[in-house]
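Reviewer 2 asked us to include a model.

Predict the structure of this chain.
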Amino acid sequence: MLKADRTARILAHIAEAGSADVHELAGLLRVSPATVRRDLQELHDQGLLHRTRGGAVTGAVNLELPLRHKHGKRQAEKRRIALAADRLVPDGAVVGLTGGTTTSELARVLAERGGITIVTNAVNIAADLIVRPDVRLVVVGGIARTTSYELVGPAADRMLAQYHLDVAFIGVDGLTAQEGCTTHDEMEAQTDRAFLRAGARAVVLADSTKIGRVTFARICPLSDVHELVTDDEAGAAREQEIAACGVRVLRA
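Predicted model (structure tokens):
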């Protein structure tokens, strides 16, 4: 296993479980405990987790993984979500896309279709789309977030205020009926709200691991959302709570 893949699995495992010990990770990855200790120390030095005696912990509630470490996780579900979301986009529409792995997947689906305008603040999405001649691309500027590859802040918000979007798709880090849509960074949350204000239709893309979670910064209540596109593992009870807030839940 390549080192990049190994560290991505370590981060994903600890983010989900909250902690892990060296021998548990060694068994999971099929490598030596010494290799795991070196990986944990490097990730600790990068500020991605906290090293402990015998293992590591996230060091914070709902650890935010950099986008490069999220790539490939639940990819099949995200592809299905993207294909379902594509059906919400009329021909010739102006579409807003925030950053995230699921919105990035939707950008690829829309690019294959062509004939639309995409407004995004995600530099990775912009890099994928700039070579697509059938897509009109508008990139929103701002302060770069290295974890999500998004450009956020007052400049982004002012630019979005000048546009009308037929559909605005946002990614979230958490979604509950009580707390609405949340993310890890308050400035990112503000720019997400700017996308929603510019959109005639607001759609959240979130795989089931985000449903029932609450993270630091509130984006909006569910009353501001028209549709949620998720996979089929969110659970009937949570889906009913969300639908009771006036949100149409679409399973991919």
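The mean pLDDT is 89. Residues 107 and 125 are 7 Å apart (CA to CA). We have added this to the supplementary material.
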